[in-house]
Amino acid sequence: MSSEQQPLEFDVVVIGAGPVGENAADRAHKAGLTVAIVEKHLVGGECSFYACSPSKALLRPIHATRASQRVQGSEGAHLDAQGVLDRRDAWINKLDDSGQVGWLDHVGITLLRGEGVLTGTRTLEVDGREVVARQAVILATGTTPAIPPIPGLRDAKPWTNREATTTRRIPERLAVLGGGVVACELAQVFQALGSAVTIVEQAPGLLGRNEEFAGTAVKEALERDGVDVRTDTKAVEVSRLGPTGEVTVHLEGGATVVADELLVAVGRTPATKGLGLEAVGAELTDAGYVSVTDQMEVKGLDDQSPWLYAVGDVNGLALLTHMGKYQARACGDLVGARAAHREPEPGKTTPWAGDLGSPQVVFTDPEVAAAGLTEAQARERGLNIRVVDLPMDKASGSGLQAEGYQGQARIVVDEDAGVLVGATFVGQDVADLIHPATIAIVGKIPLTTLWHAVPSYPTMSEIWLRLLEEYGL
């Protein structure tokens, strides 16, 4: 066998070079291990090029313009659609991943371009080349957009987040299937940039995983923008006039929505197809995600010694980039400790905070920032809770942010434990208010202690003091 035919060998092989895979590879490499990362498309992944970064780059000018218009003395700001698209292009480097590839080269992580397929215990193929992982393989392949089985939908060649966040053309009319985060954020983007947007959502409201008042506030804001929001509405068929002609969405009851483009934003599907999971006996959840232990070890392996891990969206625990990176850091440290035959530190190698501590921000205007459990989720768990609601204008800083500031805050308190288990903020510029809630929830900080964390005056953070006072402290 020639040297070209010899298997490539590394201590750790990571499949998927998005932010989650990059974090896992980096932590394993910092533990002194040789690491390869496998990527068939762009290094940096979905978040960097098609999701988090471009969508927020598109949204920020809209937010900044509106924030300026809400403050007396600076009402003259206006939106430049071409400038917004140019800013987006800069953030995604025009879909060029040379910067991320350069980082891998700089730190000493080997990039294997191609499709990674598991073939057995600690072995895989990358485009036909055998690769051996002496210690571990870490799956970080994420998810892909879900396309529901609506007759004619696939044939209509709809946009997903990928096409929507990278387009250079603003359609005159855009229909959006879905009412979650991606649907709401991108509906607001395209309406602001000149599209006539219609949302079709079969659920009763928007942002169904959040507190109901959050979805209501975003719906009202979208409607003020001019978005036609149709909840409790089901699409039953889709047709398109020719390969690029107008799209017609046929609704239950006989009505139709006609648009130039159709964006499908109804959820995600785990990217497990073609990974070779069946070759090693990996267990999947009912929804098709890779089933893992609390240390991200893949369940059901033919070889019971831990060597295969799954982090990020592919395991379905929390479809959030920051939570995936958190899992990846813990997993990389765990693999490093095991390779060195050291006892893993539980505090660093078990990402236990996912159950209650997952924060999320919906970057619409108004923003929705939430952490922990909603009121409904807490009640479903049987917790003895108390809910405290306040309008955001109770914080003195809100009036400085915008004239006539509108918004709402809620905390969910576990009365038996005396700690916070959930928080939601809705309003302009509330995103950064959620991290204190995450700290309080993960740290199980008693409310009587939290009361001593005095917010600066006059800032939006003063809402924390007002919520605790409303609670009775």
Instruction: Count up the helices.
Output: 17
* Count of the domains: 3
CATH homologous superfamily heading of the largest domain: FAD/NAD(P)-binding domain
The CATH architecture of the largest domain is: 3-Layer(bba) Sandwich
What is the strand content?
Answer: 15-25%
Q: What's the helical proportion of residues?
A: 25-40%
How would you name the oligomeric state of the polypeptide chains in this document?
A: single chain
Q: Which geometry do the CA atoms define? A: globular
Mean pLDDT: 96
Overall SS class? alpha/beta
CATH topology (fold) name of the largest domain: FAD/NAD(P)-binding domain
Q: State the separation between the terminal residues, measured CA to CA.
A: 75 Å
**Structure summary, number of beta strands:** 21
What profile does the largest beta sheet have?
7 strands, mixed
Output the radius of gyration. 24 Å
Q: Which ranges are low-confidence, i.e. pLDDT below 50, for 5 or more consecutive residues?
A: none
The level 1 CATH classification of the largest domain is Alpha Beta
Write out key terms for the chains shown:
NAD(P)/FAD-dependent oxidoreductase, FAD/NAD(P)-binding domain, FAD, 3 domains, globular, alpha/beta, five-stranded antiparallel beta sheet, 21 strands, Enolase-like, domain 1, 473 residues, FAD/NAD-linked_Rdtase_dimer_sf
Q: Can you offer a commentary on this structure?
A:
- By secondary structure, this protein is α/β, with parallel strands linked by helices.
- The protein folds into 3 domains: 3-50 and 92-144 and 270-349, FAD/NAD(P)-binding domain; 154-266, FAD/NAD(P)-binding domain, CATH 3.50.50.60; 366-471, 2-Layer Sandwich (Enolase-like, domain 1), CATH 3.30.390.30.
- It is built from 17 helices and 21 strands.
- The strands form 5 sheets. Strands 1, 2, 3, 4, 5, 6 and 16 form a 7-stranded mixed β-sheet that branches. It has a 5-stranded antiparallel β-sheet with strand order 17-18-21-20-19, with helices on both faces.
- Strand 17 and strand 18 form a beta hairpin.
- Helix 1 (19-30) runs parallel beside helix 10 (321-339), helix 3 (52-69) crosses helix 7 (181-192) and helix 7 (181-192) packs parallel to helix 8.
- The mean pLDDT is 96.
- Keywords: FAD, Flavoprotein, NAD.
- Residues 359-464 form the Pyridine nucleotide-disulphide oxidoreductase dimerisation domain.
- Its cofactor is FAD.
- This is NAD(P)/FAD-dependent oxidoreductase.
